[in-house]
């Protein structure tokens, strides 16, 4: 009974009452293909190195662009600058923030109830990106301070009876890569993205698979239920939990182990050393391992990342794009939507609770010993009382 309670107390059930379900509308995160604003970069170089033109200026501009575009996939781009003593101590986080292009966009969503929701900056493994209607991303801001901007705004939700469940981002100033994901999740370096370029509109629609959980599930520990809720973080560095956040923490810890520093695109560094260009160059030799989280022999690195107790998996249903030729206005936009609703969903339920454990233990004790749990309590009470009077009498004597 004790083993069952600790290892297998839950069950997955199938629900069919789909007409009463409300699905959280998927979030989207877009990242600029080239995030550097040239004017911001010029100002940064002039303030930092007191130079505004010439070969040296071009060299610094190339450095700024390479650093601002750093991800795990292109760490080797930093190699030409590693031996320059002037660049070793550059504050990379400060550089990235100061040269990053400002976001411009226009959003449209299926209901005016959600018209006040906007894109918010988020720090990801792809750099600084922008998320629409994210819940978890409010805690992953570039300045490491939770935003909670959308906390008073209604969360967009869709119903089987609502055939129009979509949103659109348009008037974007430059090419982007965008991700579509569950609001309580954040994209990471291995997730699928969709590119949108100048004079292009992309339309992506999704189907979904949803997992919910019973309220009683919180009474179990994460190891018992084999999943975690959003407010059960893995450690004290990032104050929320999701599967991708756990993988991000795993990559960060791996980087810290191999090169004694953590990349600048992770929030809440705390006392951990943030990599300078030499640290990033060190990580470049381990980039494949950091991306795949597998050793050189293909063995998975142990991250202990559990699934979320409540999650929505999205599956691409349709992906179409349209392009225009000049003199059509230069425009970049994309649309994401849910067109088909699932008529089944899964739910995690508790099938063997602590009360069931007590009943089972009581029944076993009654069968073999002829007593109940109450009998053990009475014996404990009797022994405690006798011990009290014994100590009290000895003290009086």
TrEMBL record:
The keyword Membrane applies. InterPro entries: ENaC (IPR001873). GO terms for cellular component: plasma membrane. It is found in: Membrane. It comes from the Eukaryota. It is a multi-pass membrane protein. Keywords: Ion channel, Ion transport, Membrane, Sodium, Sodium channel, Sodium transport, Transmembrane, Transmembrane helix, Transport. The chain crosses the membrane at residues 357-384. GO terms for molecular function: ligand-gated sodium channel activity. Its main location: membrane. Belongs to the amiloride-sensitive sodium channel (TC 1.A.6) family. This is Sodium channel protein Nach. It comes from Schizaphis graminum. The gene is Nach_0.
């Amino acid at each position: 009974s004790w083993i069952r309670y600790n290892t297998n107390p839950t069950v997955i059930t199938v629900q069919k009452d789909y007409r009463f379900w409300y699905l959280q509308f998927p979030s989207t995160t877009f990242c600029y293909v080239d995030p550097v604003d040239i004017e911001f970069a010029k100002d940064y170089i002039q303030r930092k190195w007191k130079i505004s033109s010439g070969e040296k200026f071009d060299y610094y501009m190339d450095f700024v662009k390479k650093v601002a575009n750093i991800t795990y996939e292109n760490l080797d781009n930093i190699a030409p600058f590693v031996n320059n003593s002037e660049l070793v101590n550059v504050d990379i986080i400060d550089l990235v923030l100061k040269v990053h292009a400002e976001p411009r966009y226009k959003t449209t969503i299926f209901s005016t109830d959600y018209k006040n929701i906007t894109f918010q900056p988020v720090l990801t493994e792809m750099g600084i990106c922008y998320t629409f209607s994210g819940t978890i991303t409010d805690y992953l801001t570039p300045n490491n301070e939770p935003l909670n901007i959308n906390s008073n705004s209604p969360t967009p939700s869709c119903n089987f009876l609502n055939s129009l469940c979509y949103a659109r981002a348009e008037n974007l100033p430059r090419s982007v890569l965008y991700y579509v994901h569950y609001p309580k999740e954040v994209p990471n370096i291995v997730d699928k993205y969709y590119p949108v370029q100048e004079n292009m509109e992309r339309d992506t629609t999704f189907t979904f698979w949803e997992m919910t959980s019973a309220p009683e599930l919180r009474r179990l520990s994460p190891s018992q239920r084999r999943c975690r809720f959003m407010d059960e973080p893995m450690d004290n560095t990032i104050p929320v939990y999701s599967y991708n956040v756990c993988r991000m923490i795993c990559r960060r810890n791996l980087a810290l182990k191999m090169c004694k520093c953590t990349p600048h695109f992770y929030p809440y560094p705390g006392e951990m050393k943030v990599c300078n260009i030499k640290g990033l160059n060190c990580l470049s030799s381990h980039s494949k391992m950091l991306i795949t989280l597998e050793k050189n022999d293909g063995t998975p690195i142990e991250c202990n990342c559990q699934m979320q107790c409540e999650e929505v998996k999205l599956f691409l249903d349709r992906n179409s794009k349209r392009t225009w030729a000049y003199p059509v206005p230069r425009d970049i936009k994309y649309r994401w939507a849910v067109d088909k609703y699932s008529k089944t969903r899964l739910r995690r339920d508790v099938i063997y609770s602590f009360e069931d454990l007590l009943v089972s233990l009581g029944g076993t004790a009654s069968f073999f010993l002829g007593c109940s749990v109450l009998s053990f309590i009475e014996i404990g009470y009797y022994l405690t009382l006798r011990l009290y009077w014994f100590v009290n009498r000895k003290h009086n004597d």
